[in-house]
Design brief:
Cofactor: Mg(2+)
CATH architecture of the largest domain: 3-Layer(aba) Sandwich
Largest sheet: 6 strands, antiparallel
Family: Belongs to the succinate/malate CoA ligase beta subunit family.
Number of strands: 19
Oligomer: single chain
CATH class of the largest domain: Alpha Beta
Subunit structure: Heterotetramer of two alpha and two beta subunits.
Helix content: 25-40%
Protein name: Succinate--CoA ligase [ADP-forming] subunit beta
CATH superfamily of the largest domain: Succinyl-CoA synthetase domains
Catalytic activity: succinate + ATP + CoA = succinyl-CoA + ADP + phosphate; GTP + succinate + CoA = succinyl-CoA + GDP + phosphate; (S)-malate + ATP + CoA = (S)-malyl-CoA + ADP + phosphate
């Protein structure tokens, strides 16, 4: 689960991280009061969307101006103007895709006198099962570009969970950033603060880009991007309350209600599969034969008929879906359960696009018989390769 920058900063502040004063704005009428509360003389008006590249982004609407999604204001009137231009309009960045995201929240923050910009992040390193720090002197830039062009400017290290965060970790951060004296001490404290916040709240990623040194030699968290491990949110109802569903795909929200692993994609063939590995293979083979998947959907190993029905309804709710491939290998999941779920869903929502079903495993003959007896126009498949070729051919035939 992602949260907005202003929410991330408020959370980090409770742990003692140095952040600028700021006020979230959800309506145009709140702009003046927020600006006067902060006092100026420099304000930063920031779009709050779950995507990076806001400063370099462009609004679709001409009335929003061409100054991007992060703007410097030098008067209360300019703050009000920027809020009026940005709020409710669509910002397109390198991470939103061409559709962009509507800006429903803004964050007005006091300006900072920047001396130097750095990059600092924490993430879960799956290869070591540890929390790792990634540090670079190249703050304010895309870390992927830094890694590609100048990888020697990135320093990373992991923290042993048995010993936890130690003073030498802070020294590693300070050394990587070239900090000494009081700034090195500040870096040591910040390192401990961020690690504690990360582990306490079950974060999956914490990115600060940039971390700055001000003209008066103070470290400050100027931006913050936080992602939480969704599997751990049951432990943090306070964090779950920060979820902004307007930033998420409605189909993904519906899928989460049924504990379905669903990710919307931009293709034409809807997929319902059990098992993440099989689902990825299904997506790959659809691409191999010339079409693109409309989703990743793993119904899991022990899905009920209700869950399968919900999954099918979610797939068919996508107007881009021109065909559906059901690919089930029954182990824990039984093929007859899948078959009944598909029939229940088709009965409820109707079937307007080609449907290919490949079943194999536990109760496979019962499942196939249920589908044969249904009278539905379902295309049977013998294996994954056969299924992929048939659904691609059926979609292309419909489009012709």
């Amino acid at each position: 689960m992602n949260i907005h920058e202003y929410q991330a900063k408020a959370l980090l502040k409770t742990y003692g991280a140095p952040v600028s004063r700021g006020v979230p704005v959800l309506a145009v009428g709140e702009a003046e009061a927020a600006a006067r509360e902060l006092g100026g003389p420099l304000w930063v008006v920031k779009s709050q969307i779950h995507a990076g590249g806001r400063g370099k982004g462009k609004f679709k609407e001409p009335e929003a101006g061409d100054k991007g999604g992060v703007r410097l204001a030098r008067s209360v009137e300019e703050v009000k103007t920027f809020v009026e231009q940005m709020l409710g309009n669509t910002l397109v960045t390198v991470q939103t895709g061409p559709a962009g995201k509507q800006v429903n929240r803004l964050y007005i923050e006091e300006g900072s006198d920047i001396e130097t910009e750095f990059y600092l992040s924490l993430l879960v390193d799956r290869s070591t099962s540890r929390v790792s720090f990634v540090v670079s002197t190249e703050g304010g830039m895309d870390i992927e570009e830094v890694a590609h062009s100048t990888p020697e400017k990135i320093v990373s290290f992991s923290v042993d969970p048995a010993s936890g965060i130690q003073a030498f970790h802070g020294r590693k951060v300070a050394d990587a950033l070239g900090l000494s004296g009081d700034l090195a001490k500040q870096a040591g404290k910040l390192t401990e603060v961020l690690y504690t916040a990360f582990t306490d709240t079950d974060m999956a990623m914490l990115e600060i880009n940039p971390l700055i040194v001000t003209k008066d030699a103070k470290l400050k968290v100027l931006d913050a991007k936080v992602t939480f491990d969704s599997n751990a949110l049951f432990r943090h109802p306070d964090l779950l309350a920060l979820r902004d569903e307007t930033e998420e795909d409605a189909k993904e929200i519906e899928a989460s209600k049924y504990d379905l692993a669903y990710i919307a994609l931009d293709g034409t063939i809807g997929c319902m599969v059990n098992g993440a590995g099989l689902a990825m293979a299904t997506l790959d083979i659809i691409k191999l034969y010339g079409e693109s998947p409309a989703n990743f959907l793993d119904v899991g190993g022990g899905a009920s008929e209700e869950k399968v029905t919900a999954a099918f309804k979610i797939i068919t709710s996508d107007p881009n879906v021109k065909g559906i491939l059901v690919n089930i290998f029954g182990g824990i999941m039984k093929c007859d359960v899948i078959a009944r779920g598909v029939l229940a869903a088709v009965t409820a929502v109707g079937l307007k696009v080609p449907l290919v079903v490949r079943l194999e495993g536990t109760n496979v003959e019962q499942g196939k018989q249920i589908i044969r007896d249904s009278g539905l126009n379902v295309i049977p498949a013998d294996d994954l390769d056969d299924a992929a070729q048939k659904i691609v051919a059926a979609v292309k035939k419909e489009a012709a």
